[in-house]
Amino acid sequence: MSYRGLREAAKFCAGIVTADLLTVLWMWSNNLFPFQIWGVTWTSSVVLPGVIFDLAVIIFLVHYGWHLGKIPRPRERTYLLVAGVIFTIIALAHLTRIFTQGSLVIFNWSVPLWLSWIGTIVTAYLAYASFHFATTRSRR
């Protein structure tokens, strides 16, 4: 796929996400929450995270769709540092769930607590590896 095709796809997807954002805001303003789709009940508590996520995706897609040739390539060290931070946050979220004995239900399936132990180990290792490779890359 050419750059032109990717730009056009990003513009189209930006329109789709914008329509989703406007639909959520319209449903919220008309008090249509809660409702259920495919067995998932959506309440008004998902409006703010949904709006934030949609806005972030729209900004990314608009930037990508209209400025593709001007996006600088990230340096490898920067990419590794960002990946390390993200993996650290996910590992801390798993640890928080373990220590607070929090429950997590996905589509009527109660996620066992031992799964967070695996998630903690895997993401902590990935964070360590990312930071390790980022520091070895800076020495060269």
Shape: flat
Report the major sheet.
2 strands, antiparallel
**What percentage of amino acids are in beta strands?**
5-15%
Based on secondary structure, the structural category is: mainly alpha
- List the total number of helices: 4
Poorly predicted runs: none
Order of helices and strands: HEEHHEEH
Radius of gyration computed on alpha carbons: 20 Å
Can you give the helix content as a percent range?
Answer: over 70%
Number of domains: 2
**Strand neighbour order, sheet with most strands:** 1-2
Strands, count: 4
- Mean pLDDT across every amino acid position: 85
How many angstroms separate the termini? 35 Å
Oligomer: single chain
Architecture overview:
The protein has 140 residues and is mainly alpha-helical. The chain is 70% helix and 7% strand. The chain has helices at 3-29, 47-66, 76-100, 114-139; strands spanning 35-37, 40-42, 105-106, 109-110. The strands form 2 sheets. It has a two-stranded antiparallel ribbon. A two-stranded antiparallel sheet has the order 3-4. Helix 1 runs antiparallel to helix 2 (47-66) and helix 3 packs antiparallel against helix 4 (114-139). It is flat, with a radius of gyration of 20 Å.
